[in-house]
Design a protein that fits this description.
By secondary structure, the protein is an alpha+beta fold. The chain is built from 24 helices and 12 strands. Helices cover 49% and strands 9% of the residues. The chain has a 5-stranded mixed beta sheet, with helices on both faces.
């Protein structure tokens, strides 16, 4: 088969058709429709299998099938539902099944199963009296009113059974039901959309829109099929790397991020075109790249946890910060003290500037060059062009757990060893930064109080209004005006309160503004305090 680059574009209009379901099953078995290795394993339970068959029998719609006709050489499954699949002819355009695996697997398994395991998912019969499907637990021939579904693929065996039903007292009715069963599975039609030989960038969005499960086809899925061999499975390899990082809560790193690092470790880069070159490497080279990638991830995770104070991947502002840092620790496993300082400055600059929000192919190439120049001692700094933002960013950005600047703020505040402003107790920063919930983050000016004096929810949720605060203390503050609850706290703890506020980057001037319920002045002063701390960390 001719190899096409993932990045090549040969778009063709999707070709719709209406095909009989038993013919689609036959095409799977003869190798005309293939299940690429990026497809999921069969995951339906026995109940779902019976429901699908019942839908076909009752002529209910079961969705469409999406095929991708291509000459791209992708590894595919050689079995479906305990059945052998024929191999495609050399250099013959094949149809890769993108959506419909569970449904076609069910039809293939039920109609063509010839196994010897009585507990098999595919040991299915149809009860002609109750007109329902059921699983058998024996290989023996069942009662006459039960007809094995796999006889549907052998008309002679099926109608021999139908003929024998005439001996039953309700034989005529059973025969009518059996004939209806046969006709439904022979005549049932599915809508099929066949995509032409196009690039993954073109296939993926179409797949995402049509796919009945909502699962997105990614470059990781395609490269799994492009690089698969008996001793290398890309998904398994990435899973094993993520599992190794679970002990430090970094197992949520995106598959595509790890794939970028595997590509770089194999001598390429971070871009799609570089990733496509992985298909030219043998399994030994791919396993070596994976081993190097794992070692680099471990070093990068140690940096994040010890130098930045991040207890898990979920709070890293940008996933691609991880990608670049892993490649850096791959080519520079043991930085000097000065290099460590430069790397920390790089982290803060790229986090707060939003550098990775628009990372493109050009950035990937230049950043890779910068990383390698830094590692080779040709540069004292990681030469990324990061524009320093103004302090207003902390006024305008809202606190959301998926917001990069919210994560940056949380890490910055963690550096202050924050104390609860009501009790003075130290906040468990590691717990808060696990990012599993936002119970440790609350509004300094209560949201409902601000709503009552005319501020919108968006204004109330700005980053400069967020502090570390326990849920218990937040309930104590409730919806009170700052002038009221700060007065109460101050009367209890005296001059300790300003110290506790400082640990949340609330300077004395902002505290005084809050006591006057002056929200706008408070926000401007606190934004500047946050900005000053960020600039210090970034060495700006």
């Amino acid at each position: 088969m001719t190899k096409n680059s993932i990045g090549s574009k040969l778009p063709k209009d999707p070709q719709p058709s209406v095909d009989r379901i038993d013919e689609l099953a036959r095409r799977v078995l003869v190798g005309d429709i293939l299940l690429p290795k990026f497809q999921r394993d069969f995951v339906w339970d026995k109940g779902q299998v019976l429901n699908l068959l019942d839908s076909v029998y009752r002529n209910y719609p079961i969705g469409s099938v999406l095929l991708w006709q291509s000459r791209q050489e992708l590894h595919s499954e050689n079995r479906i539902a305990d059945l052998e699949i024929a191999l495609p002819k050399p250099d013959y355009p094949v149809n890769y099944l993108l959506d419909g695996q569970q449904r076609l697997s069910t039809v293939c398994g039920a109609m063509h199963w010839r196994g010897d395991n009585p507990g098999s998912t595919w040991n299915i019969a149809f009860d002609l009296r109750k007109e329902q499907f059921l699983h058998l637990d024996t290989l023996d021939e069942p009662a006459m009113h039960l007809i094995r579904v796999n006889k549907l693929s052998e008309p002679s065996a099926f109608f021999q059974h139908v003929s024998a039903l005439s001996n039953a007292k309700d034989g005529e009715n059973l025969q009518a039901v059996a004939n209806e069963l046969f006709n439904r599975f022979k005549d049932y039609k599915l809508a099929v959309v066949t995509l032409g030989d196009m690039a993954i960038e073109d296939v993926a969005p179409i797949f995402e829109r049509i796919n009945s499960t909502g699962t997105r086809l990614t470059i990781v899925d395609l490269m799994r099929a492009a690089t698969w061999s008996q001793d290398f499975d890309l998904i398994d390899t990435i899973d094993s790397i993520r599992e190794e990082l679970a002990v430090k809560a970094f197992d949520g790193i995106e598959y595509k991020s790890v794939l970028r690092n595997l590509s770089a470790a194999a001598g390429g880069g971070f871009s799609v075109d570089s990733i496509d070159n992985l298909r030219s490497h043998d399994s030994r080279a791919l396993r070596s790249a994976a081993s190097d990638t794992l070692d680099a991830y471990k070093r990068a995770v140690d940096f994040f946890t010890t130098e930045i104070g991040v207890p898990g991947d979920s709070v890293i502002p940008y996933q691609n910060q991880i990608v670049v840092l892993v490649e850096l620790f791959r080519v520079l496993p043991h930085p000097t003290a000065a290099q460590y300082e430069s790397i920390k400055h790089w982290f803060w600059r790229t986090a707060v500037s939003g550098y990775f929000a628009g990372w493109n192919t050009g950035n990937m190439a230049s950043d890779l060059r910068s990383v390698r120049a830094f590692a080779e001692g040709k540069s004292d700094d990681l030469d990324f062009t990061c524009i320093k933002p103004r302090s207003e960013i902390w006024e305008k950005k809202a606190f959301r757990t998926n917001n990069a600047h919210a994560k940056t703020l949380a890490i910055v505040l963690g550096y202050q060893k924050p104390q609860d402003i009501v009790t003075g107790k130290k906040i468990d920063v590691a717990k808060a930064l696990s990012w599993s919930n936002s119970r440790e983050f609350h509004h300094f000016f209560p949201k409902n109080f601000l709503k009552g004096i005319g501020y919108s929810t968006t204004q109330a949720n700005c980053l400069a209004n967020i502090i570390y605060l326990s849920s218990h203390s937040n309930k104590q503050i409730s919806d009170k005006a700052p002038s009221a609850y700060l007065k109460d706290i101050e009367s209890d703890v005296g001059d300790k309160l300003p110290q506790w506020l400082e640990t949340n980057l609330i300077p004395k001037e902002a505290f005084e503004a809050a006591k006057q319920n002056d929200y706008e002045t408070f926000i401007k002063l606190r934004s500047q305090a946050i900005q000053d701390k960020v600039e210090q960390l970034a060495s700006w």
